[in-house]
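--- STAGE predict ---
source: upstream dedup step, 1 unique chain passed
mode: sequence only
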Amino acid sequence: MAAAAVPAAVLTAAVLHAVWNGLAHRIPDKLVGFTLINLAYTACAVVLVLLNPFPAAAAWPYLLASVAMQVASQLLLLRAYQLGDFGQMYPIARGSAPLLVAVLSVALLGESPGAGELLGVAVISCGLVGLAFAKGIPGRAQLPALAAALGTGVMIAAYTVSDGGGVRHAGTVGGYVAWLFLLQGPVLALIALARRGPRLLAGAGPAVPFGLLGGVLSLTAYGLVVWAQSRGDLATVAALRETSIVIAALIAAVVFRERLGRLRMAASAAVLAGIAVLELARP
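--- STAGE serialize ---
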């Protein structure tokens, strides 16, 4: 039973992650949507901070670094969703992160990848190229969206590594997640307020339920992943987590009526398969 808890938690997180991203994309004014999401999980985090132990001092360098990278990730994802289709931006953002981790481990740490890891990198690369070229050769107008999605992937790779180390030093999963969301939550809301002024949420009524629900789902999803990282094999957790790409593809087709097409579906499947090969091939 205990052995099944970790994969069950990660798969649940994958569903919740795809759904909250879908909710964020559904709100026409993306800045308002992301603001509502951040306000919702900031409020939840206040409660969690009061209910959980304070993270150990050794975890704080990791936690603060992750806060900065999470904020950067949200700003880039916000831009990607403003400019591109959900069914294209989401898998590029999610799928590029494991690829970047693999490349950086070779370039910066001098690691020697095995045949399985090289195969995983090759398959992910092919899938990402397929997604980028799903509508033909990207023109100048498409490049900012693709750059924002890839930038999101860079930040995801960075904060995943940071949180993997931080939660092991924290002595408390709940406390680590609570402070992570409490510290990052107000930042984007303040940035949005500086851009729009006091009328930021004027007329946001129809978007409020979706934004608040998205915030709760976002915190829950990441909390489940961090909990799984503290108890399970990181490679397996990472591989299972990326099943959200498939769920996002279904959301794009069913909810947003985006035409996936054979190329985009095959490319998304290739990214997912490559991630599984890459993560499971690691020692």
